[in-house]
Amino acid sequence: MASSILPFTLPSLSSFNPSQRPNLFHLRSAVSQSQNFGLKASRLLRQDDKCLSVMASGNLSYAVTQEHVLNWVKQDNRRMLHVVYRVGDLDRTIRFYAECLGMKVLRRRDMPEQRYTNVFLGYGQEHAHFVIELTYNYGIDSYGIGNGFGHFGLAVDDVSRTVDIVRVKGGKITREPGPIRGRSSVSALIEDPDGYTFELLERPPSPEPLCKVMLRVGDLNRSIKFYEKACGMELLYMRDNPESKSTVAMMGYGPEDKNTVLELTYNYGVTEYDIGDAYAQIAIGTNDVYRTAEAIKLAGGKVTREPGPVPGINTKITACIDPDGWKTVFVDNVEFLRDCSNL
Ligand SMILES: C[C@@H](O)C(=O)SC[C@H](NC(=O)CC[C@H](N)C(=O)O)C(=O)NCC(=O)O
Ligand SMILES: [Zn+2]
């Protein structure tokens, strides 16, 4: 049976009549008020029928807080900035990406005190394009990729030609070029020197050749809710693939023909994965890391790094993990632009 696009069936974020809302108050005072009541706001928000249950308990202010936070997240200036992962030999990876995949080095950041180096690579400048941020930790030459990480999607104009180059350069081809299930377009899978998979997708020239990050998750609806509510992403579409016994949800901050997207894959019956220690995170721009962290907590998400400057860089970030343990970092938009223009 061919794959099919599923309708959106998730519950709406708010289920009470907006005309009943009292005046909105500032998010931070709302959060501290929720703490004064001796209740964890995040606990309340984990329920699908949260607003109604909050109203039933007579605590309308919680519902207003949640509404206010979710509205702010939706209006925030968000974009997927880069994907971060660890490699054992920077020069080896840079050479492979440049020679086989045509990427350019955009920026390098040496952090001797913190004992790591970052190299940014991609197809366009960082202020406007999604790029790769490689991390090399001094003295560590290999990592475990696990079985939860899927692949990075890369749009190329000729998959077979790219595969030939990868082969000539000694790269590994894990799926030869061929049509994608039920469609006419061609794809292939290759592995980089550290074992990260790239899915090559034959597409006309695209504004974002680095077009997706695919991660496996144990409960698709739970993950969709997390990325919608805690991260403010949109569910672009879902597709069920009965032949491969899997369903994917495409999520992001805009349509996939113009924006890099997060592809979440659920394999029927598989509820847990080893997420390894090689893949690190996706970084997302925000206008306010403090509000972002508050919003994540109010949505029931787990903040793993409280908002504040990164040691040695001074750019403000905050970080959270999703229900499967995948990390997302939010980066202050203004400071990010300063970093990537001060090469
Ligand atoms: C500003 C933001 O976009 C960054 O990239 S900060 C860089 C920082 N990277 C590291 O700390 C790499 C070394 C570390 N030992 C590792 O292997 O990950 C980073 O991404 N920080 C995010 C965080 O949550 O600390
Ligand atoms: Zn980063």
Automatic annotation (TrEMBL):
Active-site residues are E199 (proton donor/acceptor)
Q: What class of enzyme is it?
A: lyase
Query: Any idea which UniProt keywords this protein has?
Result: Lyase, Metal-binding, Repeat, Zinc
Native organism taxonomy? Eukaryota, Viridiplantae, Streptophyta, Embryophyta, Tracheophyta
An example GO CC term for this entry is: cytoplasm
Role of this protein: Catalyzes the conversion of hemimercaptal, formed from methylglyoxal and glutathione, to S-lactoylglutathione.
Q: Which GO terms describe its molecular function?
A: lactoylglutathione lyase activity; metal ion binding
Query: What biological process terms from GO does the record include?
Result: methylglyoxal catabolic process to D-lactate via S-lactoyl-glutathione
As to how many cofactors bind and how, the note says:
Binds 1 zinc ion per subunit. In the homodimer, two zinc ions are bound between subunits.
Supply the EC number(s).
4.4.1.5
Against InterPro entries, the record matches this protein to: Glyas_Bleomycin-R_OHBP_Dase, Glyas_Fos-R_dOase_dom, Glyoxalase_1, Glyoxalase_1_CS, VOC_core
Protein's recorded name: Lactoylglutathione lyase
Q: Which Pfam families match?
A: Glyoxalase
Family membership noted in the UniProt record: Belongs to the glyoxalase I family.
**Entry keyword annotation includes Membrane:** no
Q: Which residues bind Zn(2+)?
A: E133, H151, E199
